[in-house]
Structure formats: C-alpha cells, structure tokens
Amino acid sequence: MRVLIATDAWHPQINGVVRTLTAVERATKALGATFTFITPDQFPSVPLPGYPQIPLALPNPRTVARLVGEARADVIHITTEGPVGHFVRRYCLANGLRFTTSLHTRLPDYVSARAPIPEAWTWAWMRRFHNAGAGVMASTPAFAAELAGRGFRNTMLWPRGVDTELFRPRTGADLGLDRPVFLSVGRLAVEKNIEAFLSLKLPGSKLVVGDGPARAELATRFPEVHFLGALEGEALARVYSAADVFVFPSRTDTFGLVLLEALASGLPVAAFPVAGPRDVISGVPVGVLSSDLRAAALDALRVSRDACRAFAVRHSWRESARSFLGNVAAAHAAHPVSVTSQAEHSSFAA
Q1: What confidence tens digit (pLDDT) does each residue in 209-266 have?
Q2: In angstroms, rounded to a whole number, what is the distance separating the alpha carbons of residues 320 and 28?
Q3: Domains 2-161+318-349 and 181-312 belong to one CATH topology
Q4: Where are the domains of the chain?
C-alpha cells in the first residue's frame, strides 16, 4: 500500500504529531506499506506567529497538484488542519479523491487560551474540515466518542505506541539532582498548563524538558526548576530513566505520547483525572490521577516501576501502524467519493 501523508507538523519540530508519523512510517515498512509526505519544507514559509521556530507553509495549488500526482498513492491521509492540510484537502475534493484525517489536539482549547474566540466556533470549523473526508481518527476511545458526540462522522480509533528499546529503565541512572526528581516533558506553552506543575511545593527537584514561547518567562519565575530545553532520542530517554515521577499537568492533550515514554522507562505518572491520562492509565496501577496534582505526585512515588514498564511494553508502534493501515483501507473502501471533472482539476491547479 502506498500512503500519502499531508502534514503541517514536521521536522525539525518536536511534538507528538511528528513523533507519531515518524514511528508509524518506520513500523509500516514491515507491514508492506510505503509512505510519502507533503510537508512544510516543500513550500515557501514564514515563521508561525508566537512560534518563530515553526514554519508556516505557504502552499500553492500547482505544487500541491504535482506532489499528489507524483506520490501515486493508494490512500491519502491528512493529519493537520493547517495550510498544507487545507490545500491537500481542497485538491482531493476538487478531484474526487478519497482521504482520511486524524485529530491530534484539542485545538479549540488552544485557540480560546490565546484569543477571544468561542470554542464552539472552532469546533464547527474543525467539524467541517474533517467531515469532508472518509473518516477521522482519534487516539483514544473517549476522544473518539467525544468527536462523535460533537457531530464528527466516521470516527475511528488509532492508538499510539512507544519505542520500548529506546525508552527503558537504566540501572543507576542519575542526574546529580536532589531526589526525588519530578519530571515533566512537553511544549512550554500556555495550553500545556505547565505552571500547575512548576508551582507545586515538592521535595527534591523539579525538572522540565521542552521548549516553547513560555520558556523564558517560566525560567525567570521559577529559578529553582531545572530547564533542560528540547531533547530527543537517547538524551531524552536517559532523563526519563533518571527521574522518579513523571508529572503531566496538561488538561487538554488528547493522548500524550510522553505518558507512554515515561511508563516504558519505568516512571510512574501523576496527572489530573482528565481525558488524555485517564484513557491511558485509569484503572491500571501505573500512576495516580487526582485533582490535587501535588498529592498525585507524592503518591506516585509508591507506584511500582516494574508495573509501569510491564504496562508500556504492550503498546507497540507496530500495532499502532497496523491500526492506521486498517483504518485507511476500510475508510477508502467504505466511503467512495464521486470523481469530479477535469475542468475542476484544472481550475484548482491554475
């Protein structure tokens, strides 16, 4: 199967979407699939306002038409609602090409945190974007059910995975910090609610991995916290294994790949009892969910690290890739789209 992925999130960005796409592409090779990507680096771009390190692509119809044609894909999947996703969606609709989408973030929450835009407006826009496709994928059953309740059609489950060879316990791992070490990993931005972690009165040390527009301000306000910046690969894995508790303060993440990375490293989780962490660890003795995040963090110190590791190894990227391929194959077979005229194709690419 030849799969074309359109995404506005791509390297050198470090986020859950990029990690998911990279891991699933690697895993699908063993399943007989090949991926081609349409990404921001194939177009002129400008810095995304508020995130100067992230390029905002400026696609044009001719280039999009050429890239889609060159891919000769059996299935098309759009992962983001940004300019790349919009133009590929527009091309598919103009030419009667079936496509699927996935919803990785609670964008209405993020938008309302930055601008006086009602969440209902953003949900309506997203519903229109995704319902044009043959199916929309969500990372957890609860999020899929929520989308269905909000009027999203043909919702499908696409669970995430973790690299258990990279993220693993390491005997004797130590960062030279006072213990216990409470760790948080993620983008430093208002929607991640990182301040809820930083303001906790906890023994030992607090450690943050990640970058973002709020980093400078947070580092100034919380000088006792150790900010390591963005890390990947082995460097990130070593930090996980040297910590004692993983604190996940976000109330808006739909999943949080970092939860599985922490658990695979033998690191128990402390989080609020909200959709993302609740779907991942609720009912499993690998963390503590509480509206009192400090209490959750302290209670998590007593959670078995072996239990965390045993839980995580059941979530492989191979199974995530298998689920994705099954979804796109089923959606493309079950929801055909009528082919439009060549005149419409020409008008799009003109």
Answers
A1: 999 889 999 999 999 999 999 999 999 999 999 999 999 999 888 777 899 999 999 9
A2: 9
A3: yes
A4: 2-161+318-349, 181-312
